[in-house]
Amino acid sequence: MAFRHPDRDQIRVEDVLSALGNGVRLAAVRVLDAGGEHNCTSVLNTLGITAKSTMTHHWRVLRDSGVIWQQPSGRENLLVLRREDLDARYPGLLDAILSGAAADAALDQAAPGQAALDQAAPGEAAPGRAQGS
To answer: For residue 92, what are the contacts with CB-CB under 8 A and spacing of at least 6?
Structure first.
């Protein structure tokens, strides 16, 4: 099966941002950012996802937006982050997004309960916290 990938000049920032706006896809891109080819199973294992079917849609969105290359290899697909193309089209964008994701992950690990408190709207009580506390 051959996949269609957009050419470098067909990659659009709104598609890239939309693709990376999903937490699962962003986590997959963080894994792929280590460089080289990754098979789907290794990425799924790293993310703790057990069903390949769960990721089929996510791979398509990442591929169609120009974020990844996906190539068949036997019974697997190999995935590669299109860093060179993304950096050429939008210098610094991918680095900024991945740095932000790493910073958010570090905050979530440092204070897991704080994330819910930080997400509460002003004047609205966070889960497990009385208003005015």
So the answer is: none
CA atoms within 13 A on the CB side of 94: 22
> Distance between CA atoms of 92 and 95, rounded to whole angstroms?
5
Q: How far is CA 12 from the centre of its chain?
A: 16
3-state secondary structure of 70: strand
Q: Quote the CA–CA distance of 81 and 70 in Å, as a whole number.
A: 9
Q: Which two tokens stand for residue 96?
A: 């900024």
* 57 or 124: which leads in pLDDT: 57
What is this structure's pTM? 0.79
Token pair in block for residue 130? 């009385």
Structure confidence at residue 69 as a pLDDT band (50, 70, 90): very high
